[in-house]
Predict the structure.
Amino acid sequence: VANDAVEATGQLLASLERESYRRVGLGKVADRFFLFHCGVGFDAAVVERVEARRSLKRIAPHPVFAATAFDSWLRTYDHRAGRFVVELDDGTTITGGTMAIVAKTSPYTFVGSRPIVVTPRAGLTTPLSLAVLKAHRAAPMLGLAARAIIGQHGMGRSHAAVVRDGVEGLTITAADPIPHQADGEYLGEATSLRFEHHPDCLTIVLPTA
C-alpha cells in the first residue's frame, strides 16, 4: 500500500472497482474485537502514557514511544514480579508474565520503516498467536527487543519469552488489575481477560497495483 494519501486512495478505489475482497478473522478481548493485536501489561501501560501526550505523539511518534517505554520500565511499571497467569484452552498454563501480546497480524509494529516482529506466524486467516514476556530485568527485555527488531523471526527460543501459535482461546488472570490495549487504544485495567478467535467474520479490501 502506498504511503502517500492520494496514491493510497487511488489504490483503494481501484481495488473496490475490481472487487478485490478477502474474508478474515478477528480477535476478541472481553467485548472488544481487534484486527491487529491486543497488548497486556507493560505494553498497555506505555500506550496509556503515550495517549496522554497526544500532541507530541503526532509530531514524533516513534521517539515518544521509545522514551515513554524506557521511562515506564525504569520508574513507573512494577516488573519486579510476575504480574499475571495465562491459561490456554488446550490446558497449557504460562506463569510469571509481565507483558503479553495476542496477535492477529505480523509485524507487531514498526520503527520507522523497519518492522518489529514478535509473532511471525500470526495472520489474518489463522487463529491467534500469543507471546508472553517473562523478563523482570532490563537486560533480558532489551535482548528480546533486539531479536524482534534485528532478527525478524520473532522472539525465538528464550527463557524470558513463550510464543504459541494456533490459539483459539485463552484467559489471562492477575491478583491485581493489569492494563490492556487493543489496536493501540488503551482499554483500562482488569483482573481477568478472556480472548477468543472469531474466524471468517470480516470482509476487507485488498490493495491492487
